[in-house]
Design a protein that fits this description.
Elements: H1 3-18, E1 28-31, E2 34-37, H2 42-49, E3 54-58, E4 74-79, E5 86-93, E6 96-105, H3 126-133, E7 138-147, E8 163-173, E9 180-187, E10 190-199
Antiparallel strand pairs: 1-2, 3-4, 4-5, 5-6, 7-8, 8-9, 9-10
Protein backbone atom coordinates (compact mmCIF):
# COMPACT_ATOMS: atom_id res chain seq x y z
CA UNK A 1 0.00 0.00 0.00
CA UNK A 2 1.47 3.33 -1.03
CA UNK A 3 2.14 6.08 1.55
CA UNK A 4 -0.48 8.27 -0.15
CA UNK A 5 -3.21 5.61 0.24
CA UNK A 6 -2.21 5.05 3.88
CA UNK A 7 -2.47 8.78 4.59
CA UNK A 8 -5.91 8.94 2.94
CA UNK A 9 -7.19 5.99 5.01
CA UNK A 10 -5.85 7.59 8.18
CA UNK A 11 -7.72 10.82 7.39
CA UNK A 12 -10.95 8.91 6.72
CA UNK A 13 -10.67 7.01 10.02
CA UNK A 14 -9.93 10.24 11.91
CA UNK A 15 -12.96 11.92 10.33
CA UNK A 16 -15.21 9.03 11.28
CA UNK A 17 -13.93 9.12 14.85
CA UNK A 18 -14.49 12.89 15.18
CA UNK A 19 -17.96 12.84 13.62
CA UNK A 20 -20.56 13.13 16.40
CA UNK A 21 -23.34 10.60 16.74
CA UNK A 22 -26.47 11.61 14.81
CA UNK A 23 -28.89 13.79 16.76
CA UNK A 24 -31.96 12.13 18.13
CA UNK A 25 -35.00 12.51 15.93
CA UNK A 26 -38.18 14.19 17.11
CA UNK A 27 -39.92 11.98 19.64
CA UNK A 28 -36.66 10.57 20.94
CA UNK A 29 -33.62 11.55 22.99
CA UNK A 30 -30.08 10.28 23.19
CA UNK A 31 -28.29 9.50 26.44
CA UNK A 32 -24.68 8.73 25.64
CA UNK A 33 -24.74 6.17 22.85
CA UNK A 34 -28.22 4.87 23.67
CA UNK A 35 -31.51 6.10 22.23
CA UNK A 36 -34.77 6.56 24.13
CA UNK A 37 -37.98 6.68 22.10
CA UNK A 38 -41.70 7.20 22.58
CA UNK A 39 -43.57 4.02 23.47
CA UNK A 40 -40.78 2.60 25.62
CA UNK A 41 -41.29 1.78 29.29
CA UNK A 42 -40.64 4.47 31.88
CA UNK A 43 -38.30 2.01 33.58
CA UNK A 44 -36.20 1.95 30.41
CA UNK A 45 -35.82 5.75 30.64
CA UNK A 46 -34.28 5.34 34.09
CA UNK A 47 -32.03 2.53 32.87
CA UNK A 48 -30.84 4.49 29.82
CA UNK A 49 -30.80 8.10 31.06
CA UNK A 50 -30.83 7.81 34.84
CA UNK A 51 -33.26 9.34 37.29
CA UNK A 52 -34.98 12.53 36.05
CA UNK A 53 -34.14 15.86 37.70
CA UNK A 54 -37.81 16.64 38.27
CA UNK A 55 -40.99 14.57 38.39
CA UNK A 56 -44.44 16.16 38.27
CA UNK A 57 -47.39 13.86 39.02
CA UNK A 58 -50.86 14.82 37.84
CA UNK A 59 -53.32 13.05 40.15
CA UNK A 60 -56.28 11.19 38.66
CA UNK A 61 -59.53 13.18 38.79
CA UNK A 62 -62.14 12.43 41.42
CA UNK A 63 -65.37 10.78 40.34
CA UNK A 64 -66.01 8.88 37.14
CA UNK A 65 -66.48 11.64 34.58
CA UNK A 66 -66.34 10.83 30.90
CA UNK A 67 -63.91 10.76 28.02
CA UNK A 68 -61.21 8.42 26.84
CA UNK A 69 -58.22 8.12 29.13
CA UNK A 70 -59.82 10.11 31.93
CA UNK A 71 -58.14 8.03 34.61
CA UNK A 72 -54.74 7.66 32.94
CA UNK A 73 -51.83 7.88 35.34
CA UNK A 74 -49.80 10.85 34.03
CA UNK A 75 -46.37 12.07 35.07
CA UNK A 76 -43.98 14.56 33.52
CA UNK A 77 -40.26 13.85 33.81
CA UNK A 78 -37.65 16.53 33.10
CA UNK A 79 -33.97 15.93 32.41
CA UNK A 80 -31.68 18.94 32.95
CA UNK A 81 -28.25 18.44 31.36
CA UNK A 82 -27.01 21.98 31.97
CA UNK A 83 -27.04 25.28 30.12
CA UNK A 84 -25.53 23.88 26.92
CA UNK A 85 -28.43 21.49 26.25
CA UNK A 86 -32.18 21.77 26.01
CA UNK A 87 -34.37 20.53 28.84
CA UNK A 88 -35.88 17.21 27.79
CA UNK A 89 -39.48 16.68 28.83
CA UNK A 90 -40.99 13.18 28.94
CA UNK A 91 -44.70 12.64 29.48
CA UNK A 92 -45.34 9.26 31.05
CA UNK A 93 -48.79 7.68 30.75
CA UNK A 94 -49.57 4.41 32.47
CA UNK A 95 -45.90 3.49 32.76
CA UNK A 96 -44.92 4.22 29.15
CA UNK A 97 -43.34 7.21 27.42
CA UNK A 98 -46.18 9.02 25.65
CA UNK A 99 -44.15 11.94 24.28
CA UNK A 100 -40.65 13.44 24.34
CA UNK A 101 -40.19 17.19 23.92
CA UNK A 102 -38.00 20.14 24.88
CA UNK A 103 -38.43 23.36 26.86
CA UNK A 104 -35.63 25.89 26.52
CA UNK A 105 -32.07 25.45 27.67
CA UNK A 106 -31.19 23.86 30.97
CA UNK A 107 -29.59 25.61 33.91
CA UNK A 108 -27.48 25.07 37.00
CA UNK A 109 -29.65 24.27 40.01
CA UNK A 110 -28.65 26.77 42.71
CA UNK A 111 -31.90 27.16 44.63
CA UNK A 112 -34.49 29.87 44.06
CA UNK A 113 -33.02 33.29 43.33
CA UNK A 114 -34.62 36.69 43.16
CA UNK A 115 -38.02 36.43 41.51
CA UNK A 116 -40.15 39.32 40.32
CA UNK A 117 -43.38 39.66 38.40
CA UNK A 118 -41.53 39.84 35.06
CA UNK A 119 -39.72 36.55 35.73
CA UNK A 120 -42.88 34.45 35.51
CA UNK A 121 -43.59 33.83 31.85
CA UNK A 122 -46.47 32.10 30.13
CA UNK A 123 -45.50 28.66 28.84
CA UNK A 124 -42.66 28.04 31.31
CA UNK A 125 -42.61 24.66 33.01
CA UNK A 126 -43.37 24.12 36.68
CA UNK A 127 -39.78 22.96 37.08
CA UNK A 128 -38.38 26.25 35.76
CA UNK A 129 -40.88 28.24 37.86
CA UNK A 130 -39.81 26.43 41.03
CA UNK A 131 -36.13 26.91 40.18
CA UNK A 132 -36.62 30.63 39.62
CA UNK A 133 -39.17 31.53 42.30
CA UNK A 134 -39.21 28.68 44.80
CA UNK A 135 -42.24 27.19 46.50
CA UNK A 136 -45.40 29.33 46.50
CA UNK A 137 -47.06 30.65 49.62
CA UNK A 138 -50.16 28.56 48.87
CA UNK A 139 -51.48 26.30 46.14
CA UNK A 140 -54.78 24.72 45.10
CA UNK A 141 -55.40 22.23 42.29
CA UNK A 142 -58.18 20.40 40.47
CA UNK A 143 -59.12 18.91 37.12
CA UNK A 144 -61.19 21.21 34.90
CA UNK A 145 -62.51 21.22 31.34
CA UNK A 146 -61.36 24.08 29.09
CA UNK A 147 -61.93 24.96 25.41
CA UNK A 148 -59.71 22.93 23.11
CA UNK A 149 -57.29 25.58 21.80
CA UNK A 150 -55.74 23.15 19.35
CA UNK A 151 -58.49 24.00 16.83
CA UNK A 152 -58.66 27.34 15.06
CA UNK A 153 -61.54 29.68 15.73
CA UNK A 154 -64.28 29.14 13.17
CA UNK A 155 -63.31 25.55 12.47
CA UNK A 156 -65.77 22.66 12.38
CA UNK A 157 -64.82 21.75 15.96
CA UNK A 158 -66.16 25.07 17.26
CA UNK A 159 -69.70 23.96 16.50
CA UNK A 160 -69.25 21.07 18.91
CA UNK A 161 -67.84 23.28 21.70
CA UNK A 162 -64.83 20.97 21.94
CA UNK A 163 -63.27 20.83 25.39
CA UNK A 164 -60.35 18.99 26.94
CA UNK A 165 -59.55 18.08 30.54
CA UNK A 166 -56.50 19.72 32.13
CA UNK A 167 -54.89 19.58 35.56
CA UNK A 168 -55.10 23.19 36.76
CA UNK A 169 -53.15 24.60 39.68
CA UNK A 170 -53.19 28.07 41.21
CA UNK A 171 -50.03 29.10 43.05
CA UNK A 172 -49.91 32.26 45.15
CA UNK A 173 -46.62 34.13 45.51
CA UNK A 174 -45.98 36.85 48.06
CA UNK A 175 -43.19 39.28 47.06
CA UNK A 176 -43.59 41.55 50.07
CA UNK A 177 -45.71 44.49 51.18
CA UNK A 178 -44.55 46.74 48.34
CA UNK A 179 -46.04 44.46 45.66
CA UNK A 180 -49.35 42.78 44.92
CA UNK A 181 -49.75 39.04 45.42
CA UNK A 182 -49.17 37.07 42.22
CA UNK A 183 -51.52 34.18 41.42
CA UNK A 184 -49.92 31.88 38.86
CA UNK A 185 -52.27 29.59 36.94
CA UNK A 186 -50.69 26.39 35.62
CA UNK A 187 -52.37 23.93 33.26
CA UNK A 188 -50.73 20.53 32.76
CA UNK A 189 -47.49 21.75 34.28
CA UNK A 190 -47.19 24.98 32.22
CA UNK A 191 -47.81 28.59 33.23
CA UNK A 192 -51.04 29.63 31.51
CA UNK A 193 -51.78 32.96 33.21
CA UNK A 194 -50.53 35.33 35.91
CA UNK A 195 -53.07 37.33 37.92
CA UNK A 196 -52.76 39.85 40.71
CA UNK A 197 -54.34 39.68 44.16
CA UNK A 198 -54.35 41.95 47.17
CA UNK A 199 -51.25 43.69 48.47
CA UNK A 200 -48.62 41.34 49.74
CA UNK A 201 -47.14 41.40 53.22
CA UNK A 202 -43.83 41.07 54.97
CA UNK A 203 -43.18 37.85 56.89
Amino acid sequence: MSPRVKALLALLLLGAWLTPAPAAASGSMRCGSRLLSEGMLAAEAVAICGEPDFVDVWPSPRGHGYGYGLHDSIEEWIYNRGSSQLLRVLQIRNGRIHSIGTEGYGFAEQGAGSCGQTDILRGMTKYRLLARCGEPLARVADHVFVPDRRHRRGSLHDSYNAVIRVYREEWTYNFGSNQLLRIVVLENGRVEDVRVGRRGFDP
